[in-house]
Amino acid sequence: MELSPLLSGNQLSSLMQTIRQSKRIVICAHRSPDGDAVGSSLGLADYLQTLGKQVQVVLPNPFPDFLRWMPGSHLVQFYIHHERQATRIIDQADLIVCLDFSQPGRLQEMSVAVQRAKAEKVVIDHHLDPDLKLGSQVYCFPNLSSTCEAVFRIICQLGGFDSLSKAGAICLYTGMMTDTGGFTYNSSRPEIFEIISMLLTKGFDKDKIYRNVFHVFSIDRLRLTGYILYEKLLFFAQGKASVFTLSREEMQRFHFIRGDAEGLVNMPLQVKGMRLSISLREDTERDVVRVSLRSTDDFPCNRMAEEFFNGGGHLNASGGELPFPLSEAVKTAERAIEAYREMLG
Ligand code: 5GP
Ligand code: MN
Q1: pLDDT value at position 284?
Q2: Mutate which of 318, 321, 322 for ligand 1 pocket (most atoms within 8 A of beta carbon)
Q3: Is 317 in the pocket of ligand 1 (CB under 6 A)?
Q4: Mapping DSSP to helix (H, G, I), strand (E, B) and coil, where does residue 235 land?
Q5: What is the Cα–Cα distance from 185 to 145, expressed in whole angstroms?
Q6: Is the Cβ atom of 33 under 6 angstroms away from ligand 1?
Q7: Which CATH number covers residue 63?
Q8: Residue 68 predicted with pLDDT over 80
Q9: Do 244 and 126 share a structural domain?
Q10: pLDDT at residue 54 is higher than 80
């Protein structure tokens, strides 16, 4: 099976020329970077380094601890920790590649620095409705599993498969795996498995990657899961929707660290007939409630996120935030569920 080309001939030559002309390249991804954001950044960095480029990955804020094992992750700079230094690196870049987002707002505090930079900007993403002004080249593929998949296919089109290292392959595999919940959703296109088999020729243990990401709970994290499921889960629309909240006080009680909320919102969907799960969590840094939505089949989380939670995302996985307390946020969630009651079936 041949991978179908993602970029047209013109797009490919523009991208090639841009890369050829750039010496200093900055790669950035969205705030609260997930496996796909970090994986695509490190995977692309790996490839660009084989071309002799000076590459720096700059992310707005840190990623969860369970991604720290990823090869190359110790070289990532975090904007919120070293604002001046990061701004200088961004200012001096010839090329900025934006990965896994296509709305400048998703960079939050880093957005001004990136938008102001004189560098040429290339966007590679798989979200809906890209802001075409974000870069001079915006390559957005909403039907792909992940940005890592897009990056891999573009690297192949650029003729870079052979030079991609094992470390780079590990990073790209990781993002494909995390954005599809370990290949349990958004992952039925046969090409995905063609890509996996190509990546595996680089010689890594994919089962170990799964354990590194999904089986690294602390005991506190395991107990937090029990607490949420037993005491905090609220059900609506005859068991077709659920909502839970997580406050800062509760996070402290379970010695919460960054990443501990990851995956919790998926769990209520294990209930037969459950179509929608909403998590409302107090942000640890800012006075907002972070919202995560997950759904099954054709229930449009992204529409609900846009309409009720100042956010967006994919059909089955979206997010947003609300600028008021948890108690109010629950009411918003209830209103959202009421408004979509018919679609919940
Ligand atoms: P999570 O629930 O894992 O934070 O986010 C799930 C998905 O929702 C992300 O992959 C992203 O596509 C989208 N998303 C999360 N937060 C936001 C947000 O604040 N704004 C927008 N537009 N999309 C978001
Ligand atoms: Mn993604």
Answers
A1: 87
A2: 318
A3: yes
A4: strand
A5: 9
A6: no
A7: 3.90.1640.10
A8: yes
A9: no
A10: yes
Do both 274 and 204 map to the same domain? no
Q: How many residues appear in the chain?
A: 345
One domain for residues 156 and 235? no
Collect residues with CB below 5 Å from ion ligand 2.
36, 100, 147, 179
**φ, ψ at 333 (rounded to 5°):** -60, -40
Distance CA 125, CA 162 (A): 23
Examine the domain organization and report whether 299 and 238 are in the same domain: yes
Residues 234 and 194 both lie in one domain: no
Residue nearest (by alpha carbon) to ligand 1 atom 19: 320
| Whole-prediction pTM | 0.94
Q: Based on the fold, state whether residues 20 and 155 are members of the same structural domain.
A: yes
> Which of the ligands is closest to the CA of residue 291?
1
| Model pLDDT for residues 250-303, shown as the tens digit of each residue | 999 999 998 999 999 999 999 999 999 999 999 988 899 999 999 999 999 999
Query: What is the band of 1 on the pLDDT scale with cuts at 50, 70, 90?
Result: confident
pLDDT > 90? residue 155: yes
Model confidence at 242: pLDDT above 90:
yes
Are residues 170 and 116 part of one domain? yes
Give the total number of structural domains in the chain: 2
What is the domain range of residue 339?
Answer: 219-344
Residues 190 and 41 in one domain: yes
Q: Could you count the other beta carbons within 10 Å of the beta carbon of residue 324? A: 12
Q: Say if ligand 1 is within 6 A of residue 320 CB.
A: yes
Q: Residue 146: name the closest of 298, 44, 297 by CA.
A: 44
Could you tell me if the CB of 313 is within 6 A of ligand 1? Answer: yes
Q: Work out the average pLDDT over 199-209.
A: 98
Rounded Cα distance between 125 and 296, Å, is 22
